[in-house]
Design a protein that fits this description.
- The structure is a single chain.
- With 339 residues, the protein is α/β, with parallel strands linked by helices.
- The strands form three sheets. Strands 7-8-9-10-11-12-13-14 form an eight-stranded parallel barrel, surrounded by six helices. A four-stranded antiparallel β-sheet has the order 2-3-1-4.
- Helix 3 packs across helix 4 and helix 6 crosses helix 7.
- The protein binds phosphoenolpyruvate (PEP) and manganese (II) ion.
- The site of phosphoenolpyruvate has 11 residues, from loops.
Length: 339
């Protein structure tokens, strides 16, 4: 961190700022320039309230030279994090596909889809029980009943399940019955929820918020990790831009950006990005080519009659075809990196 003093700052003002920083266990290098004094601050500057220092008499501005997240930062954790969910590893070169319906509608529906996606090569079953719908009149999900169905189907098929939580009051229930807890785009900055999830050891799939920057997303991961849970998987699901043709704009560049900035695995959800089933395959392949650690794809046995997100859902047949291409691409990429 750097503190730039005003060019008319007095010696006492410089000493006061320096003294307050030293009291917070920082090392301060005082550089007296021709125009002004610049303080180089070393130490655990994450704990310093920059706004307070920027308001002190004689201070022109405070500049951070490091990212504001530490535990999610690759600088402090160079190796890729690998997360275990049931019998599946996420991150560190394992490409994992999570697939299933937007919403759990019945046990028969979920069981049928689970068998189909498993046969096609999916490693994890997705399904929403508590649904964050824009309209209060739309299907809200089966709630606790849906969680029980997911749990039963998981036990009967051996597939780990990922499902979305909306309220901190459900953390214990999800901790018991889900293998991965999803924080949806709308709750990415629900800090009370993030802190509660940080007190579990469960893998958390943290979706990027509707209009959030990569830094804000990593700060949300930091909330979970700094509360005690290191098992965070990031999920890029498209962001809101001026373009309205697709439901959202898939930010492919987020994949290499996150890989550079963080050690956490990143998966891509092309379904909520595109909003249209016929774009899901192209976006999936682009995500794998860009280095994603996995995909999350909506699959429905009867998309036309789905209770939620039918237009973006693949049929099991289309999903099977997509998986063939994903596997081919992955093999080609592995051969390339072996050369
Ligand atoms: C979902 O995965 O069903 C969902 C609601 O996703 P998002 O939070 O990305 O909109
Ligand atoms: Mn959905």
């Amino acid at each position: 961190m750097i503190v730039v003093m005003k060019n008319n700052a007095t010696k006492e003002e410089v000493e006061k700022v320096t003294g307050d920083l030293v009291a917070k266990k920082m090392q301060v290098q005082v550089n007296d320039g021709v125009e002004c004094t610049v303080l180089g601050v070393l130490g655990d500057t994450y704990t310093i309230d920059k706004e307070t220092f920027s308001m002190m008499p004689g201070v022109e501005r405070v500049v951070s030279v490091q990212e504001p997240y530490k535990k999610a930062n690759r600088k402090f954790h160079p190796d890729n994090t690998v997360i275990q969910a049931g019998n599946v590893k996420i991150g560190g070169g394992n490409l994992v596909v999570m697939a299933g319906p937007c919403s759990v509608e019945s046990k028969a529906q979920l069981m049928g889809i689970a068998r189909d996606v498993f046969a096609a090569g999916a490693g994890i079953l997705r399904g929403g029980a508590f649904k964050p719908r824009t309209s209060p009149y739309a299907f809200q999900g089966l709630g606790e009943n849906g969680i029980d169905i997911l749990h039963e189907v998981s036990r009967e098929t051996g597939l780990p399940v990922v499902t979305e939580i909306m309220s901190p009051k459900h953390v214990a229930l999800f901790d018991e019955k889900a293998d991965i807890i999803q924080v949806g785009a709308r709750n990415m900055q629900n800090f009370d929820l993030l802190k509660e999830l940080g007190e579990t050891k469960k893998p958390i799939l943290l979706k990027r918020g509707l209009s959030n920057t990569i830094e804000e997303w990593l700060m949300s991961a930091e909330y979970i990790i700094s509360s005690g849970n290191e098992n965070v998987i990031l999920c890029e699901r498209g962001i809101r831009t001026f373009e309205t043709y697709t439901r959202n704009t898939l930010d492919i560049s987020a994949i290499p950006a996150v890989k550079k900035l963080s050690h956490l695995p990143i998966v891509v959800d092309p379904s909520h990005a595109a909003g249209m089933y016929d774009m899901v395959e192209s976006l999936s392949l682009a995500a794998v080519a860009a280095g994603a650690d996995g995909l999350m794809i909506e699959v429905h046995n009867d998309p036309k009659h789905a209770l939620c997100d039918g237009p973006q859902s693949l049929t099991p047949k289309a999903f099977t075809q997509l998986m063939e291409k994903v596997n081919l691409l992955e093999r080609a990429m592995n051969q390339r990196s072996a050369i």
